Amino acid sequence: MQFSHIIGQQSVVQQLKEMVDNNRLSHALLFIGKEGSGGLPLALAFSSYVVSQSEKNKPVATTAGLFGDEPVAAATSHGAELAEQYIHPDIHYSYPVIPRKSGDKPISVDYVSEWREFIKQYPYGNVYDWLQFIGAENKQGNITAAECADIIRKLNLKSFESEYKILILWMPEYLGNEGNKLLKLIEEPPANTLFILVAENESLVLPTILSRCQTVRIPPIEISDVADALVQRSKLSETQALQIAAVSEGNYREALQLIQHAEEDWQSLLRDWLNSILKTGPIAQVKWVDVVSALGREKQKQFLRYFTHLLEQSIRLRTMGEEHLPLTGAEKDFALRLNKLCDISQQQAITEQLDDAAYHIERNANAKMLFMALTIKLYHIIANHTVIEVG
């Protein structure tokens, strides 16, 4: 991974380059960015850049010749090439894993082949994608005490190729209290040791680790950059790319998921839901809940995200006018209908409920119970301008 492969984030890339070029590199960096913003790709590209720059600073080797010392042609890109293939001996990776069998104490290196393949195929993927990639199903991934001990062991070894020993620790939210085992190493690391932690949720990172790291904040990717990437990498038309980029709101993983599920008719599903809530009644609601519950977790999240997108566009349509909205004709018509159905306060209340539902879906909530409760809540928000707690 090189910086040229990063989608957008030019200001962050420039900041990272200047840290190295101006010799202001902290020994512990914490990249914080929401899902799909590119935290992991930036960490991978940054580690390659650190290695390549350190190689440039190596003294030129010489060998004795008949007429004096002669420089030896060095393969100055050797380490960078290894880094870009994720096989550099001085760049180590740590990430959530699961036991392969009962009683195992798994460490990241147990899954190194799968990890290399995953970051080649899905560099913008999230932890759910990774755990499904290694067959975790509903098992919870962890960065274990055994992993922390292995990190300490590896970083105390002498470097092989590079001036730096680098650890990329993805999702430190999964460390738990085991992370305290790393505090002394982070605070007093061996010479030329670089920690790069990549997190999505700052509030879930141990405060003792947060306080020992320099924070690099990664914003959502600009919608125009997401659209450009979709045109170039996924071969979408500019119109399709802009529409998907607008829904994804700077989350490139979400954009790829939307492409994958582009055949889904979210608008019809949403229309059926609202009709069951406001017109056709309980029997239709139960039938609709059965349909949406069978979709699976990722599609359920996509559907809720689509509804949230339409609500946001409805509010913008009301306050800013049609000329500022990247909406198709059908979506614009639906947004206008939502504005007739709800005022801004109701739309905001529905959005909060949808976000809360997506949160619980991510944590394996029972889909039938969740969507039935959500149906009841939406009825009271729309019909009675109230929010009630269900379940």
Automatic annotation (TrEMBL):
State the InterPro entries in the record.
DNA_Rep/Repair_Clamp_Loader, P-loop_NTPase
Q: Which domain of life is it from?
A: Bacteria
SUPFAM superfamilies recorded for this chain?
Answer: P-loop containing nucleoside triphosphate hydrolases
Q: Protein name, please?
A: DNA polymerase-3 subunit delta
Q: Which Pfam families match?
A: DNA_pol3_delta2
Q: What is the lineage of its organism?
A: Bacteria, Pseudomonadati, Bacteroidota, Chitinophagia, Chitinophagales
Any GO BP: DNA-templated DNA replication
